[in-house]
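Bench notes, afternoon.
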Amino acid sequence: MDPYQGRRWVIILILILIGLIFIFRLLFVQVFNTKWSDRAHVITHSEKSIQPPRGLIYDRNGLLLVSANQVYDIMVTPREIGEIDTVELCKLFAISKNKFDDKIKRATSGYNVSYKASLFIEGMAKDDYAKISTGLRKYKGFNAIRSSERGYPMHNAAHILGYIRKISKKQYERHKQDEEPYFKNDYIGITGLESVYENELRGKRGKVYYLQDYKGNKKEKIEENQPLLGKNLHTTIDGTLQALGEQLMNNKLGCIVAIEPKTGEILSMVSAPSFDPALLSGKKFSNNYKALSDNDTLKPLINRPIYNDSYRPGSIFKLVQALVALNDGVINPNTGFICNKQIIGCHNHEPPMNLGIAIKHSCNPYFYQVYKRLILRGNDPSIFKDSRLGLTSWRNAVEKFGIGKQLQTDIPGVKKGLLPSIEFYDKWYGKNRWAFSTIYSNSIGEGEIGVSPLQMANLAAIIANTKAIIIHHI
């Protein structure tokens, strides 16, 4: 009997066990665990994003308000630059050495990293790029990406259209989990229609997939998904009317709002002083924006039709008082009042024997009496409680004219204005410590009522429709 027989079997079993361990390990690595296959894919594959052209913006008649001009963004990947002649490179880009160093520093700070491409020169015109394209190929780490820059064929409507800008770090973080996320050098609508319709205008990016060697050099394109172009936006603005409005308001301070009464469509919205929207497009954005924002006296960046909602409507509000009073039955077209200047000031005119004469001469005492009937209706023996009930009813009726509430429009930044409530006066005077005699200045569109120019234009459109309905009814 072989004394080494047992040892032989032990060695065989050990070898079998080692073999099984290797087999199971290879099975796990190559079949069940995707880590190494993913790693191989990363090493041998690369992808490039294709930015979609942003949608265009038109007026109601098909006039182009916002176009897309082809430009080039010069990108830099700092880690790939290597040893270069910075003097020659600065000459190529027509920048100083300090400017070059500053751009490289920014490309490696903040949310920029040295191994990813960052913006070096923004929005280079097509002709300028043609001059440097040959020389640029000599330098590693630099490449050009074809992009588009907003153009403005009519050079107006800056406050309505708004502007786009490279996404900020804060915006980038906020949109990180979006279904269609932004890249760090993408542009995003900041104000106006560019902001409101950002999702429609931006489109969806495409991708190109490449095979690459171990050094990262692209060898073969294996797949390409074309970008989805941004949708074009057709507005209700009349470009010709907008241009005329801006011409009329040249060297003036104020605004114009034109609304189509039949539909409520905004035809024109002029804020003066205005500016050429092209100033806030392209590489000179920062300097131009600073110049506009530093103009504290004229404030050209604010959109005046919606910016201030604390204007007193004045005598135009008397038409609202009249319509509310007629609807509530506290007066009729033949109701007359004495023009008593002792209760509220007024100018000399014929006696307001009916509503038509009172409107014709904008009689303050007449509408003082109209408002008094709306507020003090005798629903409670206490004038304080009766005023509370009357003010609530009056406020509910006036709100229907778009005052004291936010108008349903896609112009961003629209405000509600102020239509005083019982809570408002309670805060000012204390509960049951105010009555009609405290708030009568509301009767002529003064007092605590506040509106924006847009609300006044909307009110004019409502009254125009009301007149049309009455004439049609007659």
